[in-house]
Structures are given as C-alpha cells and as structure tokens.
Design brief:
Number of helices: 9
CATH superfamily of the domain at 108-325: Glycoside hydrolase/deacetylase
CATH architecture of the domain at 108-325: Alpha-Beta Barrel
Structural class: alpha/beta
Largest sheet: 9 strands, parallel
Radius of gyration: 62 Å
Order of helices and strands: HEHEHEHEHEHEEHEHEH
Helix content: 25-40%
Distance between the termini: 172 Å
Shape: rod-shaped
CATH class of the domain at 108-325: Alpha Beta
Number of strands: 9
C-alpha cells in the first residue's frame, strides 16, 4: 500500500469517528428529561442547578394502633365434645371353687413326754419351742427345778413332777426320792414337798423306780396321793413287772403307761426308728406314749422336724394328762 492510500484511509476514518460522536451527542440531547414533556402536557419546572434537591414527600404512615385496639377475638364456641367412655370395668373373675381337700385319715394320738428337766435350763430351751403339745417332767430338789417348771408353764407346755424312786440297780435317784422301807406317811410327805416345789403340776411319772414300782403297797400310796391332789400318774415302766396297773385297778383309777423310750440310743437314726415304733403302736391301739430326755442333743430338733409330717399324716398330738383323763390309756 502506498503512502497516499494510508493518508486517504486515515482521513475517512477520522470523518467516520467525528460523525459518530456528533450523532451520539445529538441523541443524548434529544433524550434529556428537560426536553420530554410531563404526562398530561405540562412542562416540568426546572430546578436551578445551585439549589439543593428536595426529597419527594413521603406518604403519611398510619399511626400504630394502640394496644387497646387488639382486643382478643371472642372465642368461637366449640360444640360440646362427648365425654370419653368410662374405662371398661373388669370384674374379677369368680374364683374357681376348689374341691375340699379330704381330711387325712386319723391314725392315732401321740404323746411326747420329756423327762429330767431341772438339771439345767440350756437343755430345756429347744423343747419349749416345740410347736405342738408337750409334757415335760421336772426333777425336784435341783438348782433349776422351780425355774424350769415356771418356764415350761410360760411356754404353754404341761408340767409333770418327775418323781425319783429307788431302782433295783442301786443307782442314786437324786433328791426327794421314795425308797423301799419308807412308811406311808414318809412317802406322802416326800411327794407333797416335791409337788409344792414345782407345782402346779398336771401329773407325775417315776424317775428310775424299778424297785418301788414292783411294790403294790407303795404304789397304792402314791396313786392315792395323786387322786387327792387331782393329778394323774404315768408309769414310766422302767421294769416290765410293774405293780402300778394292779394298784390302779384296786383304787378304780386310770393311769397311763409309757410305750416307747425314744433315746436309749443317741444316734439320729436310732431315735427315728423309735419314733416309727411309736407310730405303729398308735395306728394299732389308737395312741402311743413316747418318752425322751432333755439331755438328748438332737431330740428336740428331730421332733420339731417331724411335727408337720406327723399332723399331715393324720396323727394328733396331746398332753399326757389329757390322754389319761380321756381314758385313752389302760
């Protein structure tokens, strides 16, 4: 391209730019607000450029309502709601009537007599807690005789005088004993003193006494005194040939007799066998009298353990005096 062509192009370009600027200025002036009439044909008032602009007037805002204007709307009355149904009443089911349990077959009456109380109180205590009837025979003239008798009565058990009597073997029967060769008056005096020490007593049984119970005359004296004092006599049968039954028949009295000694052997199994012998006797004869001793270390526990089973099997328990008064013993 020649220099002349360049000059020519620059010239035309300048003309084009000038023309464009001029057109823009004309359009700007035509579109200015001062040249556009207001709506409704009015010319707007021109504000001098030196005056400050006044903001257009804001429309008045309504005053906020006072709190009193906000009265709570009246509650819309709701239709009454039906009361909920009462909870269902569950009446307890009627108890199913159980058929009556059959009474156990009566197998006989048992009497437990515990001898030799009065030696000490510690051995006595377990027998006082026995749950059933019990007859406890107290030896006279010992340090704890009177107190033992008092505790036995307080526990609701029956008190007997365990009257010492001479034995064939020459053993010492202890204080307050009856000996062969005593007069009738001496026999009575000894027994009455013993009864006064531990009384009131419901009855009496012999401690040792194999020599005395062989003598029908002395036994008549003993039984006569029992009748006068209103107490019963239980023959411990320390000898098979005892004369007590004959003396009782002559006097027209009913006495009791021991059937089983429970603790001649101290082993538990031996004592359980002795109880079983008494149960067999009760089933056969209707009653059984079983004698044990306070010094047997396991006897109270064994009897307490057996008590529920004995009553559940149909055996009834009573005291020695009750059995004799009821005529249950020969």
């Amino acid at each position: 391209m020649t220099p002349e062509d360049g000059i020519r192009i620059a010239f035309f370009t300048g003309i084009f730019i000038f023309t464009s600027v001029l057109v823009v200025l004309i359009l700007f002036m035509l579109c200015s607000p001062r040249s556009i009439p207001e709506a409704a044909g009015r010319q707007p008032a021109l504000v001098p450029e030196t005056a400050s602009a006044v903001p257009p007037e804001q429309p008045a805002q309504p005053a906020p309502p006072s709190p009193a204007q906000f009265a709570p709307a009246a509650p819309v009355e709701q239709p009454p709601q039906p009361a909920p149904p009462p909870p269902a009443q569950f009446a307890p089911a009627a108890p199913v009537e159980q058929p009556p349990r059959p009474e156990p077959e009566r197998r006989g009456t048992l009497v437990f007599v515990i001898d030799d109380a009065g030696n000490n109180l510690r051995e006595l205590e377990p027998f006082l807690r026995f749950p059933g009837p019990l007859t406890i025979a107290v030896l006279p003239g010992l340090p704890h005789s009177a107190e033992a008798a008092r505790r036995i009565r307080a526990a609701g058990k029956e008190v007997f005088l365990h009257q010492p009597m001479e034995a064939l073997g020459g053993q010492n029967p202890g204080p307050g004993a009856v000996y062969l060769g005593m007069s009738r008056e001496e026999v009575r005096a000894v027994i009455e003193r013993n009864l006064d020490e531990i009384g009131p007593a419901a009855g009496m049984n012999n401690h040792q006494g194999s020599r005395i119970t062989l003598d029908e005359g002395i036994m008549e004296t003993v039984l006569s005194l029992c009748r006068e004092r209103g107490i019963v006599f239980l023959d411990s049968r320390t000898i098979a040939d005892t004369a007590a039954p004959q003396a009782a028949r002559r006097l027209g009295m009913t006495i009791g007799e021991r059937d089983v000694f429970l603790d001649n052997e101290q082993e538990r199994e031996a004592m359980l066998r002795s109880v079983s012998q008494g149960l067999e006797k009760a089933k056969a004869a209707g009653f059984a009298v079983m004698i044990g001793h306070t010094w047997s270390p396991e006897l109270a526990a064994i009897l307490t353990e057996l008590y529920p089973d004995l009553t559940g099997q149909g055996y009834s328990l009573t005291t020695a005096s009750q059995l004799i008064q009821d005529g249950g013993a020969p």
